[in-house]
Each structure stands twice: as structure tokens, then as C-alpha cells.
Specification:
six-stranded parallel β-sheet, single chain, seven-stranded mixed β-sheet, 9 helices, about 300 residues, alpha/beta
Length: about 300
């Protein structure tokens, strides 16, 4: 089978031929029909000290199962997070990370919706939203952000502000339901909001915090780091909440499943519409990464083996 990997930090991605892996006792072997490209994986390629397997969201048909697998069988359509080599024709998926793909959804729908939607759902729940509040979402045109904009509305936000890197993304985020659009370069982003869902971090933490009304909450779920001054929290009694999906997936499976069920329900009702920026061939993985690195994507970037 074909697989994409790299050999050194920041090094080029290349295609190799390897044997199809055998599933472990609790694993599924999935023939990948779609693979979601994520910012954390792109960043690890450029920043990690040692090369890592290119994992992430996958969706496809189960072609083999381990001896301990009871919830899935050969032929099932599944999606989930692959922690090993996922940029490949076939990938291994632990049964605890797998979920069925409804018959009305495609593999591309699944990788655009589930993992990114789980992150958006968790970050939103961490913000403790109340009906009638105002929300601000950074990286609002990203794979996670464009779903967070829509989910904030389903959770009762009366005003949703989308913060983006480029004014060219304005029409896209407004089509998702954003009432206002702010650019990162703007001196002042918006009138005060009740909560911020921040997927960027770094230098944007300060303006994101400044956009909060007194008592406002900033949920940080970015891998981009950044620093906040304690004084900026004291003034206005603002708070910062960290969110990591992996922690919930490992320790609170019922909550994880509740979010996943809700995502598919909203998708089925047409209340949540995942957008796909582009579909790249597996051999064009470098171009898919470039779309993320340059912040040019509008929605999810997907590889199609």
C-alpha cells in the first residue's frame, strides 16, 4: 500500500510503499476513503524534534478486525482518530476511537464533521454558553472554526463574531451565520462579547481577551501557545479556560459520545453543514499541508486516497 511520511523536522513529505498492517486485538483495519488534515499534525511536521506518524481523522470501510473487537465488523463504514500512520491507503483505528458513519453521509462528510465538530463542541461547552449571549470565534474559517460558528448559534448565541486572518474570508464566514467579521490586524475587533473560542493562541490571545465583556470567558484550545498577563484577567474579572479533546476522549467516554451523537443529529437536520475547502490526492499531501500553513483554507482540507 501507499503511505506518506517524512524523515526530518520540516523535511519534505514523500510517498513510500509498505505492507498493509495487521490489526491488533482491539483494532480495526480501515481502507481509507478520506483523511482529514489538521493544524496540529501540520505543526508537528514543522516543529517536532523527531518525525512522527502522520495521523488524524480517517473514514472508510472496515476490511479486518482484531480478535477483541465486538462492536464492528468487516464492511462497516467508520470514522475516527488514528494515532498511527493515517496518511495511507489503509490505517489502523482503535475500536474506542471509532464511530459508525450514517448511511446518508459520505466519508468526506465524516472527516469534515466528527473530529473537528467534537473539538468545537467541547470548546463551546467549556465556555458555558447561555442563551442570548455574544460569541467570538477565532480561526473562524478553519476546519474547527467554521463548525464552532454554527454550533454557537445552535447553543443560543444572539450575536456571533468571526475573527479571520484575511478579509477575503468574509463572505464565507457570513454564509455560516456570522453576524460580524473581524480581521486579526484590526485595532479593535468588536463590541464586547461574553465568550471567545480561540483556536490560534500566540499574539492573538491579548486582543481576544480584550474583546471580552466583564466576567467574560476565553476558551483556549490552540496548540499555538501564548502568554496572558494576570492583570488583564483581574481587570473585568475575566477567565481563561483550557480545553483538550483527548482528555475527554480518554476519561469521559459518555460525554464524548453525547457530543458525537449531537453532531450527527444536527447534520441530519441540516442545522450543521461541514464545508470542505479542497480534496487532494494522497500524493498531493504537501499541497494540502500548504493550504493549512498559509491559512488559505475555507473549511476542512481532505486527502482522498
Amino acid at each position: 500500500m501507499r503511505r506518506i511520511r517524512y524523515e526530518s523536522t520540516g523535511g519534505p513529505l514523500f510517498l513510500e510503499q509498505v505492507a498493509v498492517p495487521e490489526p491488533g486485538p482491539a483494532e480495526l483495519l480501515v481502507r481509507c476513503e478520506a483523511i482529514g488534515v489538521t493544524l496540529p499534525v501540520v505543526r508537528k511536521v514543522t516543529e517536532a524534534a523527531e518525525p512522527i506518524p502522520l495521523g488524524g481523522e480517517i473514514a472508510g470501510a472496515v476490511v479486518a478486525v482484531g480478535a477483541e473487537v465486538t462492536a464492528f465488523r468487516v464492511g462497516d463504514r467508520v470514522t475516527g482518530l488514528c494515532f498511527g500512520h493515517g496518511y495511507a491507503d489503509y490505517a489502523l483505528l482503535h475500536q474506542a476511537m471509532a464511530s459508525p458513519v450514517p448511511g446518508t453521509a459520505t466519508a468526506v462528510d465524516a472527516v469534515a464533521l466528527v473530529r473537528s465538530g467534537l473539538v468545537a463542541s467541547g470548546a463551546l461547552e467549556a465556555a458555558r454558553p447561555e442563551k442570548g449571549e455574544a460569541a467570538l470565534v477565532t480561526a473562524a474559517a478553519s476546519g474547527v472554526g467554521h463548525l464552532a460558528v454554527q454550533l454557537a448559534r445552535t447553543r443560543g448565541a444572539d450575536r456571533v463574531v468571526a475573527a479571520v486572518s484575511d478579509a477575503a474570508k468574509t463572505e464565507f464566514v457570513r454564509s455560516l451565520g456570522a453576524d460580524e467579521v473581524a480581521r486579526y490586524a484590526d485595532e479593535r475587533w468588536t463590541d464586547p462579547v461574553d465568550y471567545v473560542l480561540d483556536a490560534v493562541g500566540g499574539d492573538l490571545l491579548s486582543p481576544a481577551l480584550a474583546a471580552l465583556a466583564p466576567g467574560g470567558r476565553l476558551v483556549a484550545y490552540s496548540s499555538g501557545g501564548g502568554t496572558i498577563q494576570a492583570y488583564d484577567l483581574l481587570v473585568g474579572a475575566k477567565s481563561v479556560i483550557g480545553f483538550q479533546l483527548a482528555r475527554v476522549a480518554r476519561g469521559e467516554p459518555e460525554r464524548y459520545e453525547r457530543w458525537r451523537t449531537e453532531l450527527w443529529r444536527l447534520f441530519g437536520e441540516g442545522a450543521l453543514k461541514p464545508a470542505v475547502h479542497a480534496e487532494f490526492a494522497l500524493t498531493d499531501a504537501a499541497a494540502a499541508h500548504a493550504a493549512i500553513e498559509t491559512r488559505s483554507n475555507l473549511g476542512k482540507v481532505v486527502l482522498r486516497p
